[in-house]
Amino acid sequence: MHTQTHIARKHSPALLFMLGTMACTAPAKAQDTSLASTESGRGSPPAPAQTSNSTDTSEERWNFHAQTTYVYQHKDGFSAPYTGPQSLSTAPEDSYTWTFTMYMGARLWKGSEIYVNPEVVVGTPLSHLFGLASINNGEIQKNGGTHPRGYLARWYLRQSFNLGGDSVHVEDGPNQLAGNYDSRRFVVTLGKLTLTDIFEKNTYANDPRTQFLNWSMITHGAWDYAADARAYTIGGAGELYWDNWVLRVGRFMEPKEANGTTLNHRIWTYHGDNLEVEHDHKLGELPGLVRVMAFRNHSWAGNYLDAIAAAEGTGNPPDVTSVRKPSSKVGYGISFEQRLSRDVGLFLRASSANDRSEEYAFTEIDNVLSGGLSINGTHWKRPDDVFGIAYSTAGLNRQHREYLAAGGLGGFLGDGQLTRYGREQVLETYYNYHLYKGVQISPDLQLILNPGYNADRRGPVFIYGVRMHLEM
């Protein structure tokens, strides 16, 4: 069984702290209300299609931002013929998370930017984080707990080398100093971050603090991206921007064990490699883009068929953790986003991986298709509000299904049997209501069918939530 922390279900003073922060925080500027907002990926820098049209060309030497987000969710009870050791509980449950992050940035020399992000997190998941592959809250961490924990989420250096082309101005934001860049440039990033800071930075479905919450919506679900239990890793990436094209490559550390808290610093032996090509376009006057990604992970991981073979004749269920060895996993993803009008944006994603090897650092999804709409509130005279609705359908490869059917336990799944397989489906909708500058509240609803890919425990499962987000 994978290493996971079982978290006690009791509320903390996090909500009171967050509300106190709201009362004493004076936001420095208005939120960017365009559909192509520059905030995405937990405070990551903007993608090239999301730069500013402002005539301001000033450059910042340093900046400071902060955010705090509280998410509360309630799951209704549902009926099921049986429940296994790692099933989603059929009883009603409550869950919450609270995070606080500081974003500090500075220029050290020409073309350089350094960013440091201290962070605090607290929370408790549904069912000890078991029973779902499409996990309901993108803010939950695998090693979270009901006592606030502080840590250094990010520390990295970004160096840009201008190569000509048009001049592009990027506005101030979290982990982004206001500055000027060439449309043709090479950018090197070294340090600690999360891979969604650089790769698959979708405009409409990337940030669980302001957009969709479900893990199957916030990035490629089948992308088992290198990360520790908090979703951060260490490594380096290079990005070549050439007008409307971007090429990204990177290598980052894997954890020492699946879903573990400690990274393996032997990056030349165990690593996650990523390649992404992006093309920005316009249909008429409406912007859009396409990204194609490929990844290859090399880690100390078990093979599902090896685990089944090792358990034959023993009377015991297979255990993928008992057959670990150096293993590789390869996968791909394609992402499309397009403005349909000034107020409506569309996103579509598809990803797949050859998950003969165990899920290692993200979640138990082997293939997934997702898509949705983001609608600005201009038509109902709430131009700062956003309504989002999306759907995902996730599946497992044959080897993974056979392992769970034989009673094996994964990082998140394990009903004790899987006699009737069904794709795990999620419908999510949220409404991001801007109370005033820098303060947002978002009701959220998720409907999930076949939790854990088990049609015997079909549900439906209803999860009702509300999110409070503050930023400065």
TrEMBL record:
<dbReference type="GO" id="GO:0016020">
    <property type="term" value="C:membrane"/>
</dbReference>
<dbReference type="Pfam" id="PF04966">
    <property type="entry name" value="OprB"/>
</dbReference>
<feature type="compositionally biased region" description="Polar residues">
    <location>
        <begin position="31"/>
        <end position="41"/>
    </location>
</feature>
<keyword id="KW-0732">Signal</keyword>
<feature type="signal peptide">
    <location>
        <begin position="1"/>
        <end position="30"/>
    </location>
</feature>
<comment type="similarity">
    <text>Belongs to the OprB family.</text>
</comment>
<dbReference type="InterPro" id="IPR052932">
    <property type="entry name" value="OprB_Porin"/>
</dbReference>
<dbReference type="InterPro" id="IPR007049">
    <property type="entry name" value="Carb-sel_porin_OprB"/>
</dbReference>
<protein>
    <submittedName>
        <fullName>Carbohydrate porin</fullName>
    </submittedName>
</protein>
<dbReference type="GO" id="GO:0008643">
    <property type="term" value="P:carbohydrate transport"/>
</dbReference>
<dbReference type="GO" id="GO:0015288">
    <property type="term" value="F:porin activity"/>
</dbReference>
<feature type="region of interest" description="Disordered">
    <location>
        <begin position="30"/>
        <end position="60"/>
    </location>
</feature>
<dbReference type="InterPro" id="IPR038673">
    <property type="entry name" value="OprB_sf"/>
</dbReference>
